[in-house]
Amino acid sequence: AQSVTQPDIHITVSEGASLELRCNYSYGATPYLFWYVQSPGQGLQLLLKYFSGDTLVQGIKGFEAEFKRSQSSFNLRKPSVHWSDAAEYFCAVEQGYQLIWGAGTKLIIKP
Amino acid sequence: EAGVAQSPRYKIIEKRQSVAFWCNPISGHATLYWYQQILGQGPKLLIQFQNNGVVDDSQLPKDRFSAERLKGVDSTLKIQPAKLEDSAVYLCASSFGPSNTEAFFGQGTRLTVV
Lengths: 111, 114
Prior knowledge:
The structure holds two protein chains of two kinds.
Chain A: E1 3-5, E2 10-14, E3 19-21, E4 24-26, E5 33-38, E6 44-50, E7 56-58, E8 64-68, E9 73-78, E10 87-95, E11 98-101, E12 105-110
Parallel strand pairs in A: 2-12
Antiparallel strand pairs in A: 1-4, 3-9, 5-6, 5-10, 7-8, 8-9, 10-11, 10-12
Chain B: E1 5-7, E2 10-13, E3 19-24, E4 31-37, E5 44-50, E6 53-56, E7 65-68, E8 75-79, E9 88-95, E10 104-105, E11 109-113
Parallel strand pairs in B: 2-11
Antiparallel strand pairs in B: 1-3, 3-8, 4-5, 4-9, 5-6, 7-8, 9-10, 9-11
């Protein structure tokens, strides 16, 4: 069975600093990978997804993620975070039309 | 375009009581999902409907949880009787096709069982 690991339960960064959230997956073939964001009191919103092709994927809100097959990783990045980026971020992988979710990483922004 | 609507937003009940959650999916979306999200975890799929038929309810605790989508549109999720470990956010999502990788999520209902 596939699994998704987000090693960091929470991360604190200063406003304006760069961000990288880690995601590792276990899957034999080329996975379909996703990043979602959940702001306080909000539902989950899709940030970006990778199906195939270019391994650097651009998403909404200035986020991007890079698929690295050799490292089984799909890390999320943003060059400069804003206070409004404070939220919980979930990585997920598709398995048979269903999503297998990581436990999430809570992003805290320092002013 | 209106999103997925859920109500109530918050609910506090005592253990052994019953509770129901309502979901109105995006118009035209045939597939509807209910997820349970316990604090500190990712969402867990409880049940998936395709129109008014159940596609997957393998993780639904059927001794206490039930869900229906009678006319293939709105859905209700019920817990009876509730246990302390049912405290979670219950998320509804919908998608046009059968894959929840294309789903849109509602804001969720936060349930606290005391």
